[in-house]
Design brief:
This protein is an alpha+beta fold. It is built from 8 helices and 6 strands, in the order αααβαββββαβααα. The chain has one domain: Cathepsin B, Chain A. The N and C termini lie far apart (about 45 Å). It is found in: Nucleus.
């Protein structure tokens, strides 16, 4: 039995892949383009002070693109950090990628998330350009990370504790994937980086929520407390 019906997933809308990647990681509609633009403006303002000149558009633009700095600031609300794949702190991830929480990947202004749900054998590709989440076997996860790195992707390891979600709760009680399901997890990667200015999809997604998941009001209060 697959976990897909329990996974929160947003299909690509305009150029809002950073929003989709964050919400896929956190498993809920926690960030909007407006929220991320506010963070981007705040970062631009701080950079303007540092450089002694007006800085605009370094961290976001009107198309819906957001920088890695915006994503890092957004995740700091959850005390989550992003560690570059090639750094010395990422050695354990390179040796055993299935033991990590998640990865956020980037190329050509496109962001997407690879996420584990509770157990090492329940990894999914949550790329918003797909029709739905796709299962990744442990073996193929490592192969995929090597492949996209060779294609020029920047890969960031997510460190910290992710908020609870219904998919995590269900994954704990599911049997390990069958050989048939594992074979599906070896489908060739089709998420090669592209600019998304001409790609517009409907914003349908799975609305699965968890009782342990903070409410949107609580998240907004945390954002206000952190960013003002």
């Amino acid at each position: 039995m697959d976990l897909v019906p329990d996974i929160f997933f947003e299909k690509q809308e305009g150029n809002l892949c950073a929003q989709h990647a964050l919400n896929a990681l956190l498993q809920g509609p926690y960030f909007t383009a407006i929220d991320l633009a506010e963070i981007g403006r705040d970062l631009d303002a701080k950079e303007s002070i540092v450089h002694g000149r007006q800085v605009h558009g370094n961290n976001y633009d009107d198309s819906g693109y957001f920088s890695i700095q915006v994503i890092q600031r957004a995740l700091s609300v959850w005390d989550l950090e992003l560690v570059p794949w090639g750094s010395t702190d990422a050695s354990s991830a390179r040796e055993a990628p299935q033991d990590q929480l998640a990865y956020i990947c980037h190329l050509d202004q496109h962001w997407f998330t690879l996420r584990k749900f509770a157990v090492p054998w329940r990894w999914y590709n949550l790329n918003s350009t797909q029709a739905c989440p796709s299962y990744l076997s442990e073996t193929y996860l490592g192969m995929l990370l090597q492949q996209i790195q060779s294609e020029g992707y920047s890969i960031f390891i997510v460190k910290g504790s992710l908020p609870g979600c219904s998919a995590d709760e269900r994954a704990v009680h599911m049997a390990p994937p069958s050989m048939q399901e594992k074979s599906k997890g070896a489908t060739p990667f089709s998420g090669k980086g592209v600019r998304l200015s001409d790609t517009v999809g409907d914003n349908t997604h799975n609305e699965a929520t968890s009782p342990s998941q903070p409410s949107l009001d609580e998240i907004r209060q945390k954002r206000l407390a952190r960013f003002g």
